[in-house]
């Protein structure tokens, strides 16, 4: 017969505390910020409004974000992180270099509902960044990252023989960055004039033109 203490140890199963996936919860709250911004504008995205949208209390929300500024900064950060993750996945998918690079660039454009939501939020917060130094810093870092990638795209196309060898890579990188930014803005503000298929067509045509004889 087992001693009582040993029986107790065998029967006892320590309770496992419910672990909260912190990043998942922060993303859920950021998505609530997105919904408020898309529906009511940035000015309406207060802690109270976001808590109501997320179906939680202000106290619970402040456990994750103490202020509206923290909420907005993370909401903007999430846009960047999601676009970057999709781009990395597209780059790893394989295929001809030109087609693969086109797919990566497309991940920054509002070609479906998810990316449209991200772009709308990004543009709204970019306007806010004019008077918000923290958002401005994030905006500038993201722009520098996209600009560097656009320059890398042009250089890769030249190296692959898809684009002309005599191109000014830095200049064409600037142009490509401007095209991508412009398409994002117009696809959101003029969706009937620039639907997803047309947006893809314009971007693909720009890349193809890099190989045209002057």
TrEMBL record:
A single GO molecular function term of this UniProt record: DNA-binding transcription factor activity
Keywords: DNA-binding, Repressor, Transcription, Transcription regulation
Keyword Transmembrane: no
Domain HTH tetR-type: residue ranges: 23-83
Keyword Disulfide bond: no
Pfam family, one: TetR_N
DNA-binding interval(s): 46-65
SUPFAM superfamilies hit by this protein: Homeodomain-like, Tetracyclin repressor-like, C-terminal domain
Protein name in UniProt: DNA-binding transcriptional regulator YbjK
Species whose genome carries this gene: Geodermatophilus poikilotrophus
């Amino acid at each position: 017969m087992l001693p009582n203490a040993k029986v107790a140890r065998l029967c006892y199963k320590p309770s496992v505390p419910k672990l909260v996936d912190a990043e998942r919860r922060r993303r859920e709250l950021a998505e609530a910020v997105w919904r408020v911004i898309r529906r009511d504008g940035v000015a309406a995205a207060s802690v109270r409004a976001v808590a109501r949208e997320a179906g939680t209390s202000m106290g619970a929300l402040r456990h994750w974000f103490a202020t509206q500024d923290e909420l907005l900064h993370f909401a903007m950060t999430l846009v960047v992180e999601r676009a970057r993750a999709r781009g990395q996945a597209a780059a790893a998918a394989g295929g001809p270099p030109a087609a693969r690079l086109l797919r990566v660039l497309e991940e920054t454009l509002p070609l479906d509902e998810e990316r449209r939501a991200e772009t709308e939020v990004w543009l709204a917060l970019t306007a806010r960044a004019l008077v918000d130094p923290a958002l401005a810093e994030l905006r500038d870092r993201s722009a520098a990252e996209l600009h560097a990638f656009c320059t890398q795209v042009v250089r890769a196309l030249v190296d692959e023989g898809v684009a002309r060898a005599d191109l000014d890579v830095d200049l064409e990188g600037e142009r490509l960055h401007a095209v991508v930014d412009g398409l994002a803005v117009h696809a959101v503000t003029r969706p009937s004039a620039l639907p997803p298929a047309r947006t893809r067509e314009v971007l693909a045509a720009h890349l193809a033109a890099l190989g045209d004889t002057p």
